[in-house]
Amino acid sequence: MLTAAVFALAGLIFVTSFNTAKGTNLRTDASLLRLSDLIEERSHKNAGLDETTAALRRQVDALAARDDGSTEAQDERLRALEASAGTAETAGPGLTVTLDDAPPNAQAAPGYPEPQANDLVIHQQDLQAVVNALWQGGAKGIKVMDQRLISTSAVRCVGNTLILQGRVYSPPYKITAVGDRGKLNKALADSPAIQNYRLYVKAYGLGWKVDEHKAVTLPGYSGTVDLHYAKPVS
């Protein structure tokens, strides 16, 4: 009877495991790999759609220029609005800030506690701190990686990856701004959030690099400019 009970219990465990797994291996990470592959695929697809949108916008601009019934004053105002909105290319002196995770074998500098996992990676607030400081320093335009920021852009991180306007990026992260280099550098130095980040650079080896440019060109934003917002339910 004891043997029969053991076999019955084992059978129950096997059935439960089968129903939970639905015929898949419970110990595999295949589902996680499929998810990461899906994210990467969507990111590439969004990049392709961005390029298509940019090409169509150039065609529309070319057609509009051929049949332009506006006055010079109106054209000037339109150019100013495009520059403010970030949809037009902008160029001038500027700088690039590069943030990176600490090396895999990072150790604490003398006098600092041993690092936790979160101490060794770039976080959303680190990227936001740099972007905010550059705006504070009078940047005429900013791009993160290869994308121009506009008023509705959101710099967000999920895990150890940056998600910006439908595309996914991994560190190192590059933030480039056009503007007065002296004012931009001062804004970076004066930012309390960046001062805190620089402590982690010193303690655990997080990446921090500032490259100045005599001339740099930022592309115009080429994605959708539609604003989506919540509406109250009546």
TrEMBL record:
Q: Which organism was this protein described from?
A: Streptomyces showdoensis
Per the UniProt entry, the signal peptide is 1-21
Q: Give the keywords, sorted.
A: Signal
UniProt-recorded name of the protein: Membrane protein
- Enumerate the Gene3D superfamilies for this protein: Protein of unknown function DUF881
Region annotation (Disordered) ranges: 85-116
Q: Name one GO cellular component term.
A: plasma membrane
Q: Which family does it belong to?
A: Belongs to the UPF0749 family.
